[in-house]
Design goal:
single chain; 640 residues; mainly alpha; two-stranded antiparallel ribbon; 70% helix; 2% strand; globular; disordered C terminus; mechanosensitive monoatomic ion channel activity; voltage-gated calcium channel activity; TMC_dom; transmembrane
């Protein structure tokens, strides 16, 4: 048979494999007999074997439980599959989407528990008061699809919007304070979102290692494969993941050793930024112009479908076509893919933020015009109620159908409807882009490639790459609209949850069936950190318009929980005066002194600037030397 040749000094000898195995077995038996006394005989030995068996079963249980926990994480396996084929940068978008879905579930529970459910269960029934009744002139068309698609008719006078809720200080046998709960829920949406964002920011910073780039190729070569994999599908995904990981590392290495013409590159960067600035200014002017023209159409009466939805259509088209235009212009800059992504995110951020604030400025002008109309309607309603009281000889029991009471414009519900329409329009454009732009393009390339004059897969149009920057910014600004609009439309959060849920399934399917990996794949690195920072900035920018309406604009006189008050925040002062001891009211009056507020805001402003610079430097991967030089100077300048 086969022989094993060994050497001992200068002598060599041959031992058959069978005899060698017998020698090894005999040595093992001698070892067991030697230490058998320590292990014990009889019952002790059986007990030891039982302990070994239970330990193995416990380890197996823990491993199965960890697999069960992984399987219970929503969309975890689907995201892992996407990461293995498209890289961590694409997977980071779906992780971000899943995180936002979880945050919105909590916000929905907050709004439902404090506003919607108490009003439905304990408030006055539908049809008993004017704000919960469809006006007589609108009843004929209240259930038409054309009206419901514009969120008018039955939907306008439903719990979806601000105007449905009554201004009674307490409702139900529990004496539930609905106006106070509405105000606190609106503040709580921003408060909870801020806490979650700061916590997520800390988690991302803690999980980031400074030694990710040390011996990267050696570590990937010798430690990437998982030898416990037994499923063929899992093995294929792991193989694709390792291949993608090497591509990412090669791109990073090429960028570090690339030679370039500095002066030409600086010139091209300046040209590209000038072109993008022109695009940003033009989009803002176009939105303002269309918004003002839309208001003129509504004043003339009987606007068409396009005139009713022109502003939403224009904003959606700008969101669709401007990001690809920015990406085309950015080719001149020749940045590293990770840095190019962040610049693209910043430019789309400026586009969306400018468009959103232009839309809000035009919307505030519309609100001011509605407030002027409201005064006339208020006087008409008061005159009618006064005459009816005289006809009833001063009796307060007046028989008047709530559907016939003159209504004010209820500007809060109008604002809420605009945000809901904008969210729905953005969702429709996103889905149409996926179905026609990605899936339709993939079908054409796949089935017409064999009968076309050139190679459609490697040439034009080829398969589409997943647009990371556009999709991330779409999520961020959609969430900004939810934060702003949920105060005027509590049902907007539910609409957003349905949008996120459908987006996860549709985009996961589209990216695996219709997209190809990026030509230059790159690591996500601190992309999640950058996403959270942008979302945090959008949160503060979304808070400003809501705070302005709460502090400066009078609520509608005949709809909403704050009707009858000069300002919305007076519900807090009313609660303190009626439900708390007098000294608490004195403390509240002193705390609202403008001098104290300014003194508290100044250090907060400086500290927030310092925090923002720290976030920006960490997100853009500023070197440690630059941080060490800049931070002491900023600390002296920004800290009082």
């Amino acid at each position: 048979g086969k022989l094993l040749q060994t050497k001992s000094g200068t002598c060599s000898f041959l031992i058959p494999i069978r005899e060698l195995s017998l020698l090894v077995n005999r040595d093992a038996q001698d070892f067991v007999e030697k230490f058998e006394g320590a292990l014990g005989r009889g019952k002790g030995r059986k007990l030891y074997a039982y302990k070994i068996m239970m330990a193995k079963k416990w380890l197996k249980f823990k491993r199965d439980f960890e697999n069960f926990k992984t399987a219970m994480v929503p969309w975890e396996m689907k995201i892992k599959e996407i990461e293995s084929h498209f890289g961590s940068s694409v997977a980071s978008y779906f992780i971000f989407l899943r995180w936002m879905y979880g945050m919105n579930l909590v916000l929905l529970g907050l709004v439902l528990g404090l506003i919607v459910v108490p009003e439905i269960l304990m408030g006055v029934p539908y049809g008993s008061i004017s704000r919960k009744t469809i006006p007589t002139e609108e009843k004929a068309n209240a259930m038409d699809y054309s009206v419901l698609s514009e969120f008018g008719g039955l939907l306008k006078y439903s719990p979806l919007f601000y105007g449905y809720y009554n201004n009674q200080r307490t409702i139900g046998f529990l004496q539930f304070r609905l106006p106070l709960a509405y105000f606190l829920a609106g503040v709580g949406v921003f408060g909870y979102s801020l806490i979650v964002l700061l916590k997520a920011q800390d988690n991302v910073n803690e999980s980031t290692s400074d030694n990710d780039n040390e011996f990267i190729f050696g570590c990937q070569m010798f430690t990437s494969w998982d030898y416990l994999i037994g499923n063929p599908e899992t093995a294929d995904n792991k193989y694709a993941s390792i291949t993608t990981l090497f591509k990412e590392s090669i791109v990073d290495e090429q960028e570090n050793t690339k030679a370039e013409n500095v002066h030409l590159r600086r010139f091209l960067i300046v040209v590209s930024n000038v072109l993008i600035t022109v695009c940003l200014g033009g989009s803002g002017y176009l939105i303002y112009f269309v918004m003002k023209r839309s208001q003129e159409f509504k004043k003339l009466g009987n606007p068409s479908w396009y005139q009713n939805n022109e502003i939403e259509i224009v904003m959606s088209l700008l969101s669709m076509f401007c990001p690809p235009l920015f990406e085309t212009i950015a080719v001149m800059e020749d940045y590293h893919p990770r840095l190019a992504l962040k610049w693209q995110l910043g430019r789309i951020f400026a586009l969306f933020l400018g468009n959103l604030y232009t839309f809000l400025l035009a919307l505030i002008d519309d609100v001011n015009s509605k407030l002027a109309e409201e005064e006339v309607i208020r006087n008409k309603t008061q005159w009618m109620m006064y005459n009816l009281t005289l006809e009833n000889n001063g009796s307060t029991q007046i028989s008047l159908n709530p559907a016939d009471v003159p209504r004010g414009p209820c500007w809060e519900t109008t604002v809420g409807i605009e945000f809901v329409k904008l969210t729905i329009s953005d969702t429709q454009v996103t889905y149409i882009t996926i179905l026609l732009g990605d899936f339709g393009r993939a079908v054409i390339v796949r089935f017409l490639n064999n009968c076309w004059c050139w190679d459609l897969e490697s040439g034009f149009p080829s398969y589409a790459e997943f647009d990371i920057s556009g999709n991330v910014l779409g999520l961020i600004f959609n969430q900004g609209m939810i934060w702003m609009g949920s105060f005027y439309a509590p049902g907007l959060i539910l609409v957003n949850i349905l949008r996120l849920l459908s987006s996860m399934y549709l985009q996961c399917w589209a990216v695996m069936s219709s997209n190809v990996p990026h030509e230059r794949v790159f690591k996500a690195s601190k992309s999640n950190n950058f996403y959270m920072g942008l979302l945090l900035l959008v949160l503060f920018m979304s808070l400003l318009p809501v705070a302005y309406t709460i502090m400066s604009i009078s609520p509608s006189f005949d709809c909403g929980p704050f009707s009858g008050k000069k300002r919305m925040f007076e519900v807090i002062q009313e609660t303190i005066e009626k439900d708390f001891p007098p000294f608490v009211n004195n403390v509240f009056v002193y705390a609202s002194n403008p001098g104290l507020i300014i003194a508290a805001l100044i250090p907060s402003f400086f500290s927030s600037n310092y925090f923002f610079f720290f976030f920006l430097s960490s997100s853009l991967n500023v070197t440690k030397n630059l941080k060490n030089k800049c931070f002491p100077v900023l600390l002296v300048l920004l800290t009082p």
